[in-house]
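May I ask you for just one protein sequence along with its backbone structure tokens in two labelled lines?

_____
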Amino acid sequence: MRLGVDLGGTKIEVAVFDERGQEIFRKRAPTPRAGYDVALEEFANLILDAERQVGERCSVGIGMPGSIAPRSGRVVNAYNTPFNGRRLKLDMEAKLGRELRFANDANCFALSEAVDGAARGADVVFGAILGTGAGGGIVVGGRVLNGRHGIAGEWGHTPLPWIKREEHPGPMCNCGRNGCIEQFVSGPALQRERAAHGDENGWAIYADRLARAMSMIVNFLDPDVIVVGGGVSKEKRIYASVPQLLSRYVYTQNFDTPVIPAAHGDASGVRGAAMLWPA
């Protein structure tokens, strides 16, 4: 059986799937805050408890914000977690006595949707998570594209294209730079525009920025489909208005890339983490 973990800044979700991919166990718990050693122990115990519940030792895949730096083995860019800067993979493997597979949470989301979700059958898939931040993952031929530094798909920390005079230099981002896409297309960004301009005008401003941000994805990756997850994905106007706006910005005269909501919703992250291991 395969066990998946969705490790977030506020919660940890653990789920176990049988050989047919059917979920047989799920549990959520708050992300530990009492220092690294205590957090590591609590994290390991969640996995061991799930295995006791299903009565079997499982393969373990873990999706998390940020990534594991290939050279140092340390967690990078996992803001708001006690694991940032630590050798989490090595320490967890030592504690559990087996190999673990880690991936960025957006990569796990994209993998889940590419394998048997909204993008089933597509060759090149971009998964965009629009929530507290803006994450991205790339799946090609059913495999996650990690990149040399483990940051493939991190569109949220690149500048917003065609930035306007009134938008420049943009809000300060958690990464320490101004004007990142994340600060224009995240859930808090949408709320901010609605509060300032009203629902309709605020939405129009947000949708145009999201289209500009997604145009960069289309121009450099040209995916077969863009799947949207996170809290903002529930806004149905995305799927009607953003593709039309995208045609203004992409480098093709015949734009027809589908922009669609995730099929598995909030469950995609933990499902994709389990899928880091073959069935």
